[in-house]
Amino acid sequence: MRILGLMLLAVAVVCGSAGAQQRIAQRRPLTADGYIKIYNMAGSIRIVGWDRDTVAVTGSVDGQAGRFFLHTDGRAGKLGVEGQGEGRAELEIRVPRRSTVWVKTSSAEIEVSGVSGALDLYSVNGPIRVRGQMRQVYAESMGGNVDLDVSAPSIRAKNGSGSVVVRGSGDDVSLSTVDGSMRISGAHLQRGRFESISGDILYEGAVERGGSTTFQSHSGSVELRLPARSSVDFALSTYEGDIRSDFRIQDSARDRGPRGRELTFSNGSGGADVSVRTYSGPIILHKAP
Amino acid sequence: MHLTEDELNDYVDGLLSPAERETMERHLATCSLCTAELEQVQLLLVGLGSLSKVVPPGEDLLPGIHARIAGAPGELHHRALWTARRPLAAAAVVLLLASSATTVFLSRGGSPPHPPAAAAPSVPLVGGGVAFAQFRVLEAEYVRAADELRKALERQEGVLDPATAEALERNLRIIDQAIRESRAALLADPNSEMLQQMLLTTYERKLDILRRVETLSANS
After folding, report:
1. Model-level pTM?
2. Which residues of A touch B191 (CB under 8 A)?
3. Are B195 and A216 within 8 A, CB to CB?
């Protein structure tokens, strides 16, 4: 009976340690414009920029998730969970504001704010949310929703079935999805490229004089809500979709062959190029109130 | 025990601690296989770094694509060795080249890149200066690059986690359907620049999603 009791106790200890949560509270030096790589396959990753030359991590790691690590050599570092299995890790990471941050996850939620350096974010299915002004942001996912409320010279996002939402401004913005929807609102941009295969694209914002913006969706709709007084040169083409416009279309339609339709016309004095192309998706131009 | 790709990349990126670096260098001093792998990583970085970020309009890329993919005889051995070791990296370079060619195609407002020199005199221009034959050459490169990436991923079967594999298949089904529709329309209307451009950018999306899976699945 005593042996059985000891065996049960041993099993309880092993199970207890396997399921135990590892609390994290670590910090290491990192230069103000350092580079940090972050790995966490499941759970959450919250990154906040701060005005210290230090990386500080707090949070917890499930016992099944693996071992937490944090290494830096002053100018670069990496952190995350090694040999991550089924478990989750919830990490809050403070990084020098001007850092370059690289993140890879499978399903963890990524949230970034207050970082003014460059961001490279990769996820399979977890959502990505970014706020703030930064040098550049690149977000890539297969199925997680991407939400960027940012001001950055360069904004890039790629998704599969997840949506992409962008608010803010950028000199050069490039977004693509497979069947995820895309919404760009309040945008001021010089150059934009928005592409989807079957996702709907909605653009609400101004187009800058001298700027160039292209939209393409195979079967999704492309809807633009532009200020009524926009000075724009439109080039719209669709193979079998409809074209509807609140803007007056001068008679410039021409056949594209056996099927298809192309319209080129200007509103106001022109000066900003807007090109829209679909295969079967409708093209809709609205005057914003 | 050999070094992992992640360790090699971190070494090249300077992300290892002094202790890790020392351990790794001790291993590299005695392991020719890992040293060769490290050289390949460094070569890839040098190669990628030397690629122009902006392809000036007018540059003839297709001969370069042909030379690298179809291979001049002198390059075949190197390519086979490299492809065997790093199939996805090889396909990524193919993707870069094919994408660059499309950039030229699109930046010319639909005029495709010059064909390979040998074919140039006989390629007819039709409808607004677009040659369907030239388009087909570029399309073939895309199909080939996508097949190469796909096969490389299939060789990694079991490495991809189920969520990634499922997301990949779902996305590829949608893209392939769009390709089928655009191709059918293009066969009926081969002079349509719009259909050519849409089809090429759809291929680009396909390559992109395959490359993305490689990025996301590496060492995950």
Report:
1. 0.73
2. 257
3. no
